[in-house]
Design goal:
Structural class: alpha+beta
Largest sheet: 9 strands, mixed
CATH superfamily of the largest domain: 3-hydroxy-3-methylglutaryl-coenzyme A Reductase, Chain A, domain 2
Order of helices and strands: EEHEHHEEHEHEHHHHEEHHH
CATH architecture of the largest domain: Alpha-Beta Complex
Length: 356
């Protein structure tokens, strides 16, 4: 069977929902949210969340950390050599920074974490990558570091450019602990009357559902650094609409919901430690992607990295809107299925198909 060399375009339905109001501290704007998805109920649900947050004064969101990683793997003859190499490498991070600067105008060395198993050395390099998501940039930088390390420490043997300690597109704890991508927290304070009017539920019910479903439910399911209902839905829709590597929703959706009572009102937040997005690079040249990035204000003439930071913050706000709306729906028996059936029936009628 031959590989098909002719490129084709897969069409995915996309709509703008919102707008959503973001009130800082890093980003202050009101934007429509582009979501590309086959799960059409996601659009009105996220829209309801955005409308509720706007009525409450808007979402506050902040980016706490920003780094991309690549782990490389070496094998040494014995543990003594492992110890000596690791100790030496920690004394030469200035040299590694200089090597990395030669690979890109934007790549900057941030840190190195080490894990050892027997005579195996796992080096997890962390970089800042400007407005790029950084997959290729970090791999190129890591390759140059590998070349230098093998020359300086000839006793080592190359095993892999990726030792799975990155951890790239896989379920892990390390990304949430050490960071991979952009670490964003978004929060909103919703008065009780607004919660009842727009979400058809109470703050108490949302808080209790978050504890019993997102927290306790994920514990018994064996979730890894995960306590949310459906972060992946909004992230995938947002990633596809803005030209991101969609497989990164695996680590991106490992986030937490924290809901609490503030008197009679609701405090609601989402924490996403692994949002991996960029505004330049692969996937960003399509016309619809450029249009969406421009709509979001992420193609402006800013300092390197600022457009991608803005995009990550907006992504987190989209996740908050969709998560809030779904949890509210699930506090009411039958609401979730009823809304899905209604929307699917409307879709069939609009397409001229008989309704079931």
């Amino acid at each position: 069977m031959r590989w098909q060399t002719t490129e084709q375009i897969a069409t995915i339905p996309m709509r703008l929902v919102g707008p959503v109001k973001i009130v800082g501290p890093e980003v202050e704007t009101e934007v429509l949210l582009p979501l590309a998805t086959f799960e059409t109920p996601l659009w009105p649900s996220t829209h309801r969340g955005a409308k509720t947050c706007n009525q409450a004064g808007g979402i506050k969101a902040i980016l706490l950390d920003d780094r991309m990683t690549r782990s490389v793997l070496f094998e040494a003859p014995n543990i003594t050599d492992v110890y000596e190499v690791v100790a030496s490498l920690k004394q030469h991070q200035d040299v590694m920074q200089a090597i990395i600067k030669e690979t890109s105008r934007y790549a900057r060395f941030l840190d190195m974490n080490v894990q050892v198993i027997g005579n195996l050395i796992y080096l997890r390099f962390e970089f800042n990558t400007g407005d790029a998501s950084g997959h290729n940039m970090t791999t190129l930088a890591a390759e140059r570091l590998v070349e230098w390390i093998l020359i300086r420490y000839p006793e080592l043997q190359y095993v892999s450019i990726s030792g799975n300690y990155c951890c790239d597109k896989k379920n892990s704890a390390v990304n949430g602990i050490l960071g991979r991508g952009k670490y964003v927290v978004a929060e909103v304070f919703i008065p009780e009357d607004i919660c009842k009017r727009f979400l058809k539920t109470t703050p108490q019910k949302i808080v209790q559902l978050n504890i019993k479903k997102n927290l306790m439910g994920n514990i018994i399911a064996g979730g890894v650094r995960t306590a949310n209902a459906h972060f992946a839905n909004m992230l995938l829709g947002f990633y596809l609409a803005t030209g991101q590597d969609a497989a990164n929703i695996i680590e991106g959706s490992q986030g937490m919901v924290h809901a609490d009572m503030r008197g009679t009102d609701l405090y609601f937040s989402v924490t996403l430690p692994n949002i991996i997005v960029g505004t330049v690079g692969s996937g960003k040249t399509f016309d619809f992607v450029q249009e969406n990035l421009r709509l979001l204000g992420c193609l402006e003439d800013r300092e390197p990295g600022q457009n991608a930071r803005r995009l990550a913050i907006i992504a987190a706000c989209a996740v908050l809107c969709g998560e809030l709306s779904l949890l509210a729906a699930q506090t009411n028996p039958g609401e979730l299925m009823k809304s899905h059936l209604q929307l699917e029936r409307q879709k069939k009628l609009s397409e001229g198909k008989p309704s079931d």
